[in-house]
Amino acid sequence: MSALMEKTELGESKSLTGRTYEELRSDILRGRIAPDKKLRLKDLQERFSTSLSVVREALARLSSEGLVRALDQRGFVTASLTLADLKDLLQTRRQIESIAIKQAIELGTPQWEADVSAAYAALATLDQKHGEKNYLSEDWIRAHEAFHQRLIEGCQSKTLTAICTGLSERIQRYRYLSVSLAPHRDAPGEHKEILQAVLARDVALAQAVLDKHYARTEQILTDAWSSVESQNNSRDD
After folding, report:
1. How many domains does the chain divide into?
2. Structural contact between residues 120 and 221, judged by C-beta atoms closer than 8 angstroms
3. In Å, how far are 6, 23, 159, 183 from 13, measured between CA atoms?
4. How far apart are CA 7 and CA 11, in angstroms?
5. In this structure, what CATH number is given to the domain that contains residue 12?
6. Do 65 and 101 have their domain in common?
7. Keyword annotations for this protein (predicted)?
8. Rounded CA separation 224/214 (Å)
């Protein structure tokens, strides 16, 4: 086999692994695959029309991110969701993003300000069109994630940004499975407060309103997830 053919096959394998990984990751984060769900290699092989080695490599990547866990000689299962884990994720996010937003305001460029403003405008447009009915739509979720992502990208630290993104994505799993139990909140108003503080380059105010925003999220999600766990325990009794 020529070097060119070997390189081509390697590239195709990486592409297949990447596609399998991305689709499975999206399904897990969006709640389309339930927690503690056994992932059968043969089923995934058929779904993605690929090899078992590609499926295993994709699952290994997901395992390294804490989204699935390997069972000794028995394949893989999606990671559990627990109230204790949710609280840990939320509290850690509040601490880490306080650092990130401070650094972003201190180091952020005019282009960063423009990117944050554009992301906010896109999110606000969806809020005005659909209100709370929008909170599980793919468009709103992407716009919401983009706004929070733009906020922290000004910190100019790939490591810090990656940590914040990872925490946000893991929290998203809980949001999908409990949003129907969440009470009303003025999320558009909260996002506007954050934007105004950031554009004013007021570090203390930005940290305060962002923390208040996440504290509200923490209260809503922990209350909702407590209800989910209570319902699950009642069914088990």
Report:
1. 2
2. no
3. 11, 16, 28, 46
4. 6
5. 1.10.10.10
6. no
7. DNA-binding, Transcription, Transcription regulation
8. 15
